Amino acid sequence: MLRKLLFALCLTLPLAGCEAGIFGNTLAGCAMQPEPTLLPEILPIAAVGRPYSVQLEVINTSTPVHGIYVNDAYALPEGLWVEHQDRDAYGLITGTPLKAGTYEVHMAAGTYGTQCAGRRASRVYKLEVTE
């Protein structure tokens, strides 16, 4: 009985140390990953009644992008929307703006997680729509 207990302890303790080492390496690796960034830094001026198209890109990602989103409280002007296909690092603001003004637009992008949790990039844009 004592022999079985010693055998179990001798086997369990080293394995627990390996798991702790692997977990510690994963945490350190995740912490060293760069933060994703949503580009472009500024949006070009739009004009009422004219088609508008701007490519968005999420850089510094180690996993695919699951979405590029607009905050409903700070949305794009009426007539514009975001198109994004799951797992692509690129998206598009597209459409035809219907009303002039200066709009504060809050956008975010999220990445899938693997060993590390998914990451998030966000940016606040000022979009000017002229007559």
UniProtKB/TrEMBL annotation:
Pfam families in UniProt: He_PIG (PF05345)
Gene3D superfamilies: Immunoglobulins
Keyword Signal on entry: yes
Signal peptide limits: 1-20
This protein's UniProt keywords: Signal
Superkingdom to which the source organism belongs: Bacteria
Protein name, UniProt field: Lipoprotein
Organism: Pseudomonas taeanensis MS-3
